[in-house]
Amino acid sequence: MRRVENKNKEEELEHNPRLFKKKWIKDFIDRNLSSHELTVERIAQIAQCSTRTLHRAFEDESECSLSEYIWQRRLTRCAEDLRDPNSIGRTISDVAHKWGFTCSAHFSRSFKAFYGVSPRVFRDSARAG
Questions:
Q1: Cβ distance 59 to 36 under 8 Å?
Q2: Which of 10, 47, 65, 114 lies at 20 to 30 Å from 19 by C-alpha?
Q3: What are the C-alpha distances in Å from 7 to residues 1, 13, 67?
Q4: Cβ atoms within 10 Å of 46's Cβ, excluding its own
Q5: Is residue 10 within 8 Å of 23, Cβ to Cβ?
């Protein structure tokens, strides 16, 4: 059954260039989240297209812009690391920096806006179980 689902998705990607581009964009973002240079402009440069083309490829069913998607993916990966018991020795700034945030204060504000609590409270509550 799984094989049929994958085949259908592959056929759908082949026949819908916009879906293919969106998948490529998401895969590229996930592979490069830790890079401080990951921006819409940089993705466009690598993909050899305009930023507008990227935005159009991404906007179909997305609830957020491409830039917002990058931030959300970074925040999600930070949250995963903050929950991870293996990252106990790492500071919150280390985790933020690992996933492409260059300013700890900006990371903390963004994290709190997205999750409703500060990174420290989030980590402490995850550790408390």
A1: no
A2: 114
A3: 10, 10, 30
A4: 11
A5: no
**Phi and psi of 100, rounded to 5°?**
95, 5
* Tokens describing residue 31: 């592979």
Separation between Cα atoms, residue 11 and residue 114, nearest integer Å: 35
Report the distance separating Cα 10 and Cα 3, nearest Å.
Answer: 10
CB under 8 Å to 76, separation ≥6 — which residues? none
* pTM assigned to the model: 0.80
- Mean pLDDT in each 10-residue stretch from start to end of the chain (129 residues)? 44 53 89 94 91 83 84 96 90 96 95 98 88
Distance CA(107)–CA(93), nearest Å, equals: 8
- Calculate ∠ Cα 7-13-15, nearest 5°: 105
Count of beta carbons in the 10 Å neighbourhood of residue 30: 10
Per-domain residue ranges for the chain? 2-66, 70-128
